Every structure is written in C-alpha cells, then in structure tokens.
Amino acid sequence: MFDTTAAFVTTGRSGYELLADPQLNKGTAFSETERDAFDLHGLLPPNVSTLDEQVSRRLQALRSFETDLERYAFLRELQDTNETLFYALLVGNLEELLPIVYTPTVGAGCQQFSRLFRKPRGLFLSIPHKARIDRIFAQPRFDAVEAIVVTDGERILGLGDQGAGGMGIPIGKLALYTGCGGLHPATTLPILLDVGTDNSDCLTDPLYVGWRHERVRGQEYDDFVEAFVSAVIKRWPRVLLQWEDFAKNNATRLLERYRDRLCTFNDDVQGTAAVATGTLLAAVNVTGVPLTEQRVAVLGAGSAGCGIASLIRAAMRDAGLSESEATARFYMVDRDGLLVEGMPGLTSFQLPFVQARKAIEGWKLDHPDRIGLLDVVRNARPTVLIGVSGQAGTFSEPVVRAMAECNGRPIIFPLSNPTSRAEATPVDIEAWTEGRALIGVGSPFPPITRGGARFKVDQTNNSYIFPGVGLGALAVGASRVSDGMFMAAAKALASSSAARDNPKHNLLPPVSALREVAAKVAFAVAIQAHQEGLTADVPIDRIDQRIHAKIWTPRYVPYRRKMD
Ligand SMILES: O=C([O-])CC(=O)C(=O)O
Ligand SMILES: [Mg+2]
C-alpha cells in the first residue's frame, strides 16, 4: 500500500529533472535546505513560497481567465507540472473547480483534446501496439498503481464518440478519486483504449492525436480488450478497474464479462445507478410516498438507464415488493418508445424491464405504434421521472406538467451530461411544477429561486459514489465490486441527506462536502464487502482506520537526497 503519511520522501532526482516531475515538483516551495541538497538554486526565483501562497497565486490567475475551457487548460497544465499544488487547489475549492476539472467543462476538454495536448498523462493503448501492452505497463513509474479508469472514448458523456480525446474523462474521474476519495495521485492511472473513431471531425482533423482509423468492432475489439484486461491482472492483481463512457452495448457486455475476474465496475451503469437510487431514497423520505408505491419512468433505456432500474428495483425488493411487482413499476422509454414485450431489437439488459402488453391494454395513445414519454406519463402516472437519454429538452413542458398533475411532489431527475444535454433545466422544471418538484440534475446548473431565496439544485452525479466505492474497495483489498456494495453506497448517500430532518433542505450534501461523502460511502462499501466475504483478512473493527490511512491530503513533505 502506498504510504500516504510518510514524514519525508527520498529521491535521487535533482535540478531540472526534479522540477520536471509533477509528482515531486514543489516549484517555488522548495526550501533553502532542499535547494542546497538538490541543486535547485538559480533554477527558481529566490523567494520561498508556502503551499497556501502558491494556491492563492494560482487561484488569482485562474479567476482572471475569460472562459472555463481556458481554466480547464490551465488546471491540466498545473496538474502536469505540480500535482500537490493542483490537488491543494482542487480540494480547497471543490465547489468552484469541480465544474472545470470535471463535468461539464471536461466534455469540452475532450472535444478540444488534440488542440490542448501538451504533456503526456496516463496511457494510450492502441490496436497497432496491442503486442506491447505488457511492456508499456512494465515501466517502474507504474509500480504504485492501484486504481485505473479506462475508456474507449465511444460515448463521452452525452457527446458521443470523441476517439482519443476521450482521455479527458479518465483523467477527470481520477482527479476526483484523489480530490474527493483521497487516493494518492501516484496510485492512479488513466487509460485510453484507442480502437479508432467513427467521428469524422476527428478523422479529418489534421491535428487529431489519435489513431486515424475507423472504430474497430467485433472479435478484434474483444481480443484487444481481453489483452488489456489480462495484462492489467498480471501487472496489478489487486487493482481497481473502472470502466467509463463505453457505448451502450459494450458497457454492460464488458462488465458482465469481467466483473468476476477482477475488482471492477462500470461507473455509468453502477455508479450512476447508485447516485440515482440514493437521491431517490432521500426524495422518498420527503414526499412521504413509500418506495414500494413509486412508479418510475426512465428516458434512455441504455446501459445507464437499465442499471438505474436494476438498483431501484433491488431497493424495492428490499422494501418488500416481489420481483414481478417491482419490475412492473418501471417504464423504460428509448428511441422507439416504451419497451414492451415482443418489441424487436431488445438487448439482453433491456429484456428484464419490458412492460407486459396486458398492462398497457387500456392506455389512451396518440400514436399506438410508438408509445412516447408523454403517453407513458399520462397513462402510467409515474411518481419518478429519470433522464439518461443524452437528448436536451426531452422533458418537455407537457411532460413535466403532466408529472405535476398526477403528483403532489413529482420526483424529476434529468441526469444527462454535460449541461447542454440535460433533459430539462431546473428553472423550467421549477416553473412547470409550481415549485413542487424534487429535482436532481447530472451536471451543475446555476441556483434557482425557491420561496424567494436562492436554492442550489442537487447534482445527482456519480461523483457522489465512485470515489467512495474506490476508496472503500481498495482500503480493504476487496477482490470484487458487488451489487450489494453499490446498494450500500446508495443507502449511505441517502443517510447523509439533510432533507431527512427538514424537507426544504437539499436531498444531497453539497459538492463542497464530497470528501466527507466519499469517506462515508467508503465505509459502507467496505463493511458490505466484508460481510460478503470479499475482503482480504481485515478485521471489521479496523476498517475505519484502514480507510482513513488511505486518504492522502495534499501537502509538501521534506525531501532527502537518495545516496547511490
Ligand atoms: O461524468 C459524469 O459527469 C457522469 C458520467 O459518468 C457520465 O455522464 O458519463
Ligand atoms: Mg461516465
């Protein structure tokens, strides 16, 4: 385990070599003694700064930029220059900086990746170099790796195929692993599987940095992913591997293929499901309608939508419904409308959630050949409406008003990211429901006015879940990530809700509290792993201490010169 509490660091690097290493560089904060020991005099201006001074200098520069994309580029550059300072800045200003390092600006960062590219970070594994994966992994720099986030760039947020530019996502997710979950940056590794791209803007862009090839699919794709996972297991047998932003079919398929082979999960399927379930459990407390009586419409029946339905259904079963009673409460709507039994082209993960023909027999429909979302809301009268469609504006005024007509407190979560893809804006939902809706959005939005005061709408984003799941799993050396661990994460999140004591309060803790949320989620996840027999021999009463020992706080420790 990486020592996050070491009193000092020993290094053989000096001079420019030391300054050029983002994991070791302290910039102007190298002390006089260190400048003596590491030949740094003259390479730095003479005044020695503190970390706090460096943070305020960077914050000033950051705030002077015109656009968030410039801020994103500035922060990425800082991350590649001095990681301790980057994380000190991030941890101290989560609310302000998360929307830049992460959603929504990271989406633009992926789209502009080839233009912003400066220094290498993480690993680009491309099909032409498939045979070299072991050798790439072998570099000593990666000895400490414990957490990997991998994407193939095909479904970047709601922005579609971004090819190699998708690398921005693993980098952003891992920034939260450290910034919120406390994992030491040296233990994290972002990976982009470059299997080509079908995005013609990338393919025709002379500056595109990825492999200029149409996206490889089928057996060759599967063989490449298999080579990747096998090499990961060989090099880091106890690693945590997070799959991120894979397209609909691959997401669930790869998860099913690998979830019993290593400690792994898919954030879009399971992380998003846990944050949606946790927020829903908090909302149920407020509306007073028990979970067993909720009816849930989900727009977007892809891997994320079906993942959400699975976890909420499991929570309904925990609350006393039978499997079939719980299943009947879901209305999954995709491109061809409501999923109904016998529909052609259903995928294996959609099949468990189709509505019975009999159940919809008496429905009044505008177009019986395609049962749209408005039809579903008018006829099924759902209490909950969740969007993971990637389609802006699909929670239209008639849809939202229909939700408000049949519910005193409709629960409405437009979860698609980034901000530009949200199914509806909080301001509109607030107006169309006369302020009665319980709202959760995937991306950050400006505060709305509620009861004459500013109200910050809950950001129902998997950032409330994955840093804690990773921290908890790694702290106890979990061999697998189970569905039970995600349920534990969802319940831990719901139990942090301020709305439990006052229904006017937020459903979720604020983004500024994400470090505390991650620690709490980690504890619940680790306890669950222990109960399921998935942990190495960690005594239950040591779990809390294990978690806290793993949380790294960005600060400078003194350096000593390694003698050779
Ligand atoms: O990255 C985010 O903000 C949430 C997420 O996983 C996605 O939208 O794919
Ligand atoms: Mg994602």
From TrEMBL:
Origin superkingdom: Bacteria
GO MF annotations in UniProt: oxidoreductase activity
Malic enzyme N-terminal domain boundaries: 79-259
Assigned EC number: 1.1.1.38
Keyword check for Metal-binding: yes
PROSITE patterns associated with the record: MALIC_ENZYMES
Residues of the Malic enzyme NAD-binding domain: 269-530
Cofactor(s) the protein needs: Mn(2+)
UniProt entry keywords in alphabetical sequence: Metal-binding, NAD, Oxidoreductase
PANTHER family per record: MALIC ENZYME-RELATED, NAD-DEPENDENT MALIC ENZYME, MITOCHONDRIAL
The family this protein is said to belong to: Belongs to the malic enzymes family.
Descriptive protein name: NAD-dependent malic enzyme
